[in-house]
Amino acid sequence: MKEELNKVVKVAENEINNASSIYDLMQLKSRYTGKKSVLNSFMQKIGSLSKEERPAFGQTLNIAKKQLVKMITDQEKKIKELDYNKILKSESIDLTMSGRKRAKGSLHPITKVWREIEDIFMAMGFEVAEGPDVEDEFHNFDALNTPQNHPARDLSDTFYLDNDVLLRTQTSTVQIRTMENHPLPIKIISPGSCYRNENDASHSPMFHQVEALLVDEGVTFTDLRDILNIFVKEMFGSKIESRIRPHYFPFTEPSAEIDIVCVKCYGKGCNLCKGSGWLEMGGAGMVDPNVLEKLGIDSEKYTGYAFGLGMDRIAMLKYKIPDMRLLFENDIRFLKQFS
Ligand code: DAH
User: Fold this and answer.
1) Which of 36, 143, 153, 329 could bridge across to 176 with cysteines, CB 3.0–4.6 Å?
2) Secondary element (H or E) of residue 55
């Protein structure tokens, strides 16, 4: 029986030393030392031995059991250490590796132009005024001398939210809001979003304008021309002249359209300016006395100029962006170029 026991211990030792996982080891533990284990079956066989043989075998059995338990604990330690080393290795950090760069964000070209415009005009003493994107017909049309039958008020051109409520089609609304609330003299610009039902390479349903309004005693058309020239040179460089051409706007008299020398060919004529050497930038004029009077401003004493420029257009010219839709698609490959 002793020989049999030795054989079992040998086999067990071999199996325990080869166990590579805690799970396998626990299986062996229960197989060899548990209640229904091989060693226990020897215990039951003790009864078949002679009285003299029993104590000695019992002792041998106990020693064998202790041996197996120790082997199992040793192997358990070994396995755990191996596992731990594996984890350490997998989680180790190579401190000599160069770091990963975080992608840097950048300002949208319109935001850049927006801020630059504010800076240029604030340096000349203009305040920045704001008005709501959702407007009423009074501020968007009526107060700006744009009567009920004017084509700009057509449903197909303007986004109405309700009978009298619409997305403003122009930042000129802020002229009215400022004249309603601001003490004279007034010297403001108002950059912001506008909305019209149009969509192609040079028009977007949502676009941006910057409005300017100066109302004071003795303001003249030459003041308007001068401020536009200063702005254009600050924005595009000293080579770029501006000019004003007669035009019509309901809320200015006289009215003008503002052009600048083509930023691509400097006036020679190219595909950008369609051969004319000039690019359109917006509208301007002397505030119509009717507009002033309706807001309670004495048009005998006060005169004013106003203009509205397309900010998207300015961004396109400044950064040589060929299609307006690029400004609103937010393609990361496009935007990355402005970082
Ligand atoms: N609001 C006009 C438009 O969107 C542009 C404009 C014209 C603004 C003349 C003005 C102005 O302030 O005086 O077409």
Assistant:
1) 143
2) helix 53-91
Q: pLDDT for 286-321, tens place per residue?
A: 999 999 999 999 999 999 999 999 999 999 999 999
Number of domains in the chain: 2
Separation CA 242–CA 259 (nearest Å): 6
Instruction: Give one DSSP letter per residue of 70-91, joined into a string.
Output: HHHHHHHHHHHHHHHHHHHHHH
Which residues sit with their C-beta closer than 6 Å to ligand 1? Answer: 170, 172, 211, 249, 252, 282-285, 306-308
- Note the pLDDT tens digit of each residue in 104-119: 888 999 999 999 999 9
Query: How does pLDDT run across 243-261, given as a tens digit for each residue?
Result: 999 999 999 999 999 999 9
pTM of the full structure: 0.72
Q: Which of 312, 313, 245 is nearest to 283 (CA)?
A: 245
Q: Which domain holds residue 275?
A: 109-338
Pocket test for ligand 1, best of 172, 208, 251, 287 (most atoms within 8 A of CB): 172
Q: SS3 of 236, please?
A: helix
User: What confidence tens digit (pLDDT) does each residue in 145-163 have?
Assistant: 998 888 878 878 899 999 8
For residue 98, is it within any domain? no
Query: How far, in whole angstroms, is CA 84 from its chain's centroid?
Result: 43
